[in-house]
UniProtKB/TrEMBL annotation:
InterPro entries: CMP_dCMP_dom, Cytidine_deaminase-like, DHFR-like_dom_sf, Eubact_RibD, RibDG_C, Riboflavin_Biosynth_HTPR
Binding site for substrate: 193, 209, 229, 232, 276
UniProt protein name: Riboflavin biosynthesis protein RibD
Positions of NADP(+) binding: 179, 195, 221, 225, 278-284
Binding-site residues, Zn(2+): 75, 100, 110
Domain CMP/dCMP-type deaminase span(s) in chain numbering: 26-149
Pathway: Cofactor biosynthesis; riboflavin biosynthesis; 5-amino-6-(D-ribitylamino)uracil from GTP: step 2/4; Cofactor biosynthesis; riboflavin biosynthesis; 5-amino-6-(D-ribitylamino)uracil from GTP: step 3/4
PANTHER family: 2,5-DIAMINO-6-RIBOSYLAMINO-4(3H)-PYRIMIDINONE 5'-PHOSPHATE REDUCTASE, DIHYDROFOLATE REDUCTASE FAMILY PROTEIN (AFU_ORTHOLOGUE AFUA_8G06820)
Amino acid sequence: MLERPQLPKPGRRNFIRRAGRLATSPSDARWLAAAARLAGRARPLSRPNPAVGCIIVSGDKVVGRGWTGDGGRPHAEAVALGQAGDSARGATAYVTLEPCAHQSQRGPACSHLLAQSGLARVVAGVEDPDPRTAGSGFAHLRAAGIVAEVYPCDDARASLAGYLIRAEFGRPHVTLKLATSLDGCIATAAGESQWITGEVARAHVHSRRAMADAILVGGGTWRSDKPRLDVRLPGIESRSPQRVLLTRGVPPDGVKVINAPGQIAALEGVQYLYLEGGGMTAASFLAEDLVDRIELYRAPIVIGHGRQALGEIGLDRLADAHGRWTLVERRQLGSDTYEAYSRTR
């Protein structure tokens, strides 16, 4: 199940004004969800561009598909059109993000490529917030006689969470990872923490690291645990993210340092930040409302008097704790339970 951050959404009137009538066919939702799954293959190697997926369908048959290439090129639409060839004529293109309208030295605008393809219809899951394209991609398609529509799609928004958070809040999408006992401890009172969860859960953590642009821990965790913060799954070791340390100390070799949580906005090229702790660092991000997703790995053990997962987050009233987080995913990983919660904004 894809992550579903609750981002501010353009109003329904805005969609109608800019993109024409809204599509309502159940098949549109199905194909957009499939395009969103394709987009996941581009993350995070598409940086600095968003990870976009595109599927071209003719008569309920896929004739072309694509996702953003490494480094942002080629775009998903160009790949899908290249596969479809002449079969694109009269077909429908499903793309997670409105096709770009601005020219680039690295390649033509996707709305121009689509306009020349003979497509009958283009359906996008999200309107592009980039002012160079916002609405202009659809306008160019409609001017070419192509029906261009927005079908608001949670799966498409989820697949673009890092890009949309950057556009809306000027910072990366932040996922906080916690691995705890049943009673919320991350270590014994003496500090022993390896390993609370089992091998399956730890492998899953490495797969999540591979989807991030950068991974962050606090100075205390760095000094006490000496974490490698890399990806150690066979075949994708090269996906290890940039390491970031929250500290006021001297930066270690190959590690970027920030002094305060708000400085993540200055992490260049980072759309997805994976936060692994420790407890005070995690609490500082929660206190400043900088966490968009919590991924909780819970082991079937009870530690008792141990180190708690979180420090003070500035919560004074219990009522303020409710309504902030929505469960979006749950699965069993060996003997451990994995749950993902999205911040409700």
